[in-house]
Amino acid sequence: MRQKLTPFLLLLTLSSILISCTKNETASVIPITAITVKNLAADTVLGINAITGMPYSAGKYTFYSLERNEVVLNTDSASTKWDLAFAGTKILTNGGTSGTGLGGAFIYTGLFDDIKTIATDSVFKTDNAPASYAITYGSGKGWYVYDQLTSLITPLAGRVLVIRTASGKYAKLEIINYYKGGVTLPVTASDSEKLSKQRYFTFRYSFQPNGSKTF
Amino acid sequence: MKVRLLYFLFFTPICLFSQVTFVKDTIQLQGDSVVVTATRSERKLSNVTVPMTIINSRSIQQIGALRLTDILREQPGLTMTSGFGAGVQLQGLNPDYTIILINGEPLVGRTAGVLDLNRIALGNIKKIEIVKGPSSSLYGSEAMAGVINIITDATTKIPLQSSLRYGTYHTVDVGLNNSLAVKSIFYQGYYNYYSTDGYSIRPSTASRVTTPIQRLASNQQFKYNVSNNTNVLVGLRFTHEQIKNEISVSNGGTIIQSNGEEKNTDYNLSSSVNHRFSNSLKTSFRSYITQYNAVQNLLTISGLPYTDLLDHLFNRLENQTDWVVNKNLTTIVGGGAVMEGVKSSRYDSEKIRKTNTNQYVFNQWEWTPNSQLILIGGIRFDHNQTYASAWSPKASMLYKLNKQNSIRLSIGQGFKAPDFRQLYLDFTNAAAGSYSVFGTAQAQKVIGQLNTLGQIGTLYNNFYQLKALQPEYATGTHVTWEFVPNTKSFFSFQLFRNDIRNLIEVQQVGAYITGAQIFSYLNIGRAFTTGFEFEAKHQISKHFSISTAYQYLETGDKDQIAQIKSGTVYTRDVNGLSRKLNISEYVGLPNNSKHKAQLKFNYSNQNGWFGNIRALYRSKWAVNNTNGNEVYDAGDSFAKEYIALHLAVGKEYVKGFGFQFGCDNMLNYIDALNLPNLSGRTFFTTLKYQLPQKHKL
User: Fold this and answer.
1) Is A129 inside any structural domain?
2) Are residues A77 and A44 in the same domain?
3) How far is B194 from B127, CA to CA, in rounded Å?
4) CA nearest B652: which of B64, B27, B112?
């Protein structure tokens, strides 16, 4: 009896899901799916300066459009074509002192999937270089921690960057990893490997093109 | 060159040591030894109401232990820690919470709460007594997890003993004991020289896991029996260590090499006058002065000098009176005053000594209503100048069900006073982001001044909550069942729980305009440690005995547990996506292993031959919060479980020479990062000599 009932129940559940989904779709028109971006190089380390002993890089941001899910050319840095700019652990939004757009952001503590709607009383911060940035950087202050003992950078779990794009639309973004290939290096990796494989972002995000704060 | 000279000097005069006491029962069932630490008065171990371990000089010598670390690491319930020297963790509580005494007087000179146990040489030690559980009702601050009391004896029977040991890494240890007994005057002197080249995991590098060290120690004790009822004791202890530092600091991938030297000097002067008025009344006056001075001078490769100074001075006067009211009731009452001060280059001025005074009284009653039951109740009050006062009560009982079975129960409250660092630290780390840490005694004043200068960017709410620190408190409960079925076997089973509150933790209280963090200390933490210990010993045959022990330990930060349960602590799933942490993934406090076990075989015969093999197991422990969620969970990094296997064989001579051979860490287990104090496989040989003639005491 029970065995016979199970497939039937399953069918019932499935159909009700399908029905409810259809309803939702008609309400928000386009389904929001999370997009994962892997290995986004962000001003990677080129080598070690023989005189100072410090690592050096090209010193250039990688500009990214969340709306079109692509890297934006550096020549377009003064435009509203990009939403985020990455260089090491620093992430800029296209607004305030950083750009000509309407960009801003705040860091939400909680889970990516739990942000269904951005609360109406949320305050978006804008970049005010060099005093402050919408996405705070520094170990333990924003989205990552740096371990002095192991020299490794770990994105904090349960942190979501809630972003207002250059065009004033909304996105939510979770940084997953900071190392090439999307896997944090083992503690025992050499210092040179830790340097050469860092500054590669893996993140996922959802972008709401209709301008609403609901995902 | 210097080393060789010393080597030569000490080698020529016949070398040796070894207490030639052949104890009949090699199992050392401890039953009849007299102990002092549990009640601050002499009691038979079998009448002590609290959990206690005794390590006698014979077991110290038979395993070839040189430093206090060597012997404590083999005791059930104790775990050695590294970082700021070798500390001891007792039933899951950090080294800060165990007081280390020499003949009842506390050792000072802790770095970040850790007293480096390698400072203490073991050559002249009569025994070590360990009390588990809060004992502040007798010993005050620091006796929160327990007490380790190292006991030496001025009235030894052996006029001269000496020993020479040589081992791997050019480790040299030379010991000399001499004693005199003239009528009613007794003297014992002990001299020790120790040096090691240290060791390196990568032989080609200069950097050492254990740095090259030279240590000198001496201990002089006098006892004068003025009359049958009065005696005077004077002890002078001195240690000096010189450590070569070749430190590599990795800063953003750059290795900064620093060279330098660290010199630590420690002396203690204790004296007491003890008088017995009658069989039922005695009193003793004690005075104690100790100073610990540590100076580290480093020169970085860029030529920048760096000096770190710590100087701790501690003076104490104390009286204790013991009164036997009647055959069922005894009491002790005591009180004293402490004046201590610390100078440090990490305070606002290294020239000004920060001071604290403390006055205390204690009282303990021991009631023996019948031959089966002993009840003890005690309380101590500590009044302090710079932090809140503390009351420390304790109650314990021993119930002997029958000849084989007994139950011990103890409940006590212990405390640890805020230390000078937590009160006076004024430290800005220019090398790492220019963050600052200020002790609470001046945090508000200093940060307030910085604020008027316009240097402060933000002040958090907890900045306004900064106030005089309170002591950290622990309430400990221990229940022990002891079963001695016959003269050859011993079993004990103990349940323990410690609840700690008011834990002093470093918290960010604000930030500079530059964004650099500002920290201070607040009484905020709540934690617990709980578990059980099992011990068994058995004399297999006339010559063989076996002993085993196991400890199960659970620890946790109560606030973190509450946060995890409320769903506000996160971790990542296999795909790297964030999710809520389950309480089952929480592993508790770092550096704690759930399981510890040991197994030891002992051999000894009437001709003086002895041998032992000891296996010590420790399960994995959390060392680093790699996923940054501020709690230690299954996703963090752990040190691996391991077994250390040690062996020693030798012969004790009744006349003249003795020798010993040993191999520590036979399995060559190495974990340089997490166990820097466990060097690879090492060998040693010891030659010993003692004058066969004994003092008649």
Assistant:
1) yes
2) yes
3) 21
4) B64
